[in-house]
Write a structure and sequence with these properties.
Blueprint lengths: L3 H4 E4 L3 H10 L1 E6 L5 H12 L3 E9 L3 E4 L2 E4 L3 E8 L6 H4 L2
Antiparallel strand pairs: 1-2, 2-6, 3-6, 4-5
């Protein structure tokens, strides 16, 4: 799991995450379940050419779902909140 694109799966864009970006310079990503904070930090720095100050991770539990009488659940996933150093920004999020 050394490739940065295997660690950072996708950015999470929502109204709450946009408020974090504007107010606190934090960006939210869905990451690989087995990735640790150091791997996430190096992957963000490599992909977006920014300096990371802090990484916070959390495991999100999949929701139970039904289709008629059949019951299943969505898979668990991991979310990372990355705070960048002052003056840094990720261009990808600026147009959202």
């Amino acid at each position: 799991m050394s490739d940065a694109r295997q660690i950072i799966l996708m950015p999470l864009v929502s109204e709450k995450n946009s408020n974090l970006r504007v107010g606190q310079n934090k960006y939210v990503f869905q990451v690989e379940m087995k990735a640790n904070k150091l791997q996430i930090k190096s992957a963000v720095e490599e992909l977006f050419k920014v300096r990371v100050e802090n990484v916070t991770t959390m495991r999100m539990h999949g929701k139970p779902k039904r289709l008629g009488r059949f019951e299943g659940r969505r898979p668990d996933w991991k979310k990372a909140v990355v705070r960048l150093k002052k003056g840094e920004a990720i261009e990808l999020f600026e147009n959202v």
